[in-house]
Amino acid sequence: MSDTSTDKLSQIVADIFELDAHAVSDALTPDDVEQWTSLNHLRLVTAVEEAFSVSFTMDQIESVRSIGALRQLIGT
Amino acid sequence: MKLYSMLTRMTLPGFAVSLLYLLKHRCYISPKAEVDLTPLIHIGRGTKVSSFTQIKASRGPLRIGSNVSIAMGCCIAAGPSGITIGNDCLFGPRVTVLGSNNRYTQLDVPIREQGVTSKGVKIDNNVWIGAGAVILDGSEIGEGVIIAPNSVVASKLPANAVCQGNPAKPVFRRR
Description:
The complex is a heterodimer.
Chain A lengths: L2 H15 L20 H15 L5 H6 L3 H9 L1
Helix pairs in contact in A: 1-2
Chain B lengths: L1 H10 L2 H12 L2 E2 L4 E2 L5 E3 L4 E2 L4 E3 L5 E3 L4 E2 L4 E3 L5 E3 L4 E2 L4 E3 L2 E2 L13 E2 L3 E3 L4 E2 L4 E2 L4 E2 L4 E2 L4 E2 L2 E2 L3 E4 L4 E5 L2
Parallel strand pairs in B: 1-4, 2-5, 3-6, 4-7, 5-8, 6-9, 7-10, 8-11, 9-14, 10-15, 11-16, 14-17, 15-18, 16-19, 17-20, 18-21
Antiparallel strand pairs in B: 12-13, 21-22
């Protein structure tokens, strides 16, 4: 994954969860972020799909339990 | 029709209304709910209406499909253009569905004297409306839509969308 994509994903995550982009890491999980609700999870997925021109299945969406897992999905 | 509704509303006890709806429509109305007893209301088989919910249709038709679950404290009030709710819908607690709007264009006339407009509300099959959401007159909600709690719907929502906000907008498409 290129640095440009890393910054782009971090910025998307930061926007959706109202975090500082520097605070976004691959280890981030819903347990770490109060704003990571089920609805914001769907908003995050939609934003990622639009930004990276990808499309996920429901199984893939439900399997995302960290930013690292989301990054892997974008890369596949 | 209004007088008939008023009289039945004032004289019939809740359990009598529940029994009448059970016998006529095969639906389950809590004795603590307030559902107008009028030919303007049709409720489908297997539908459940919980306590403290109000369903009013003195000015227009109100059609609720079968196997709909309406939780506590909801308010569904049909205007002259009516409200249509499909089958298999889920209404969380304190959902409001309004089938009319007040006119307010005249500054020199009290709003309550300016009458109402009514476009009607259409809710398709298999819709889940979250607690506290408000569905305003003119809304059309497509099949399979999910509305987040406390959202305000005032427009058309496409099928299978997950919607949130005031006004409610799609944030995800179910697949």
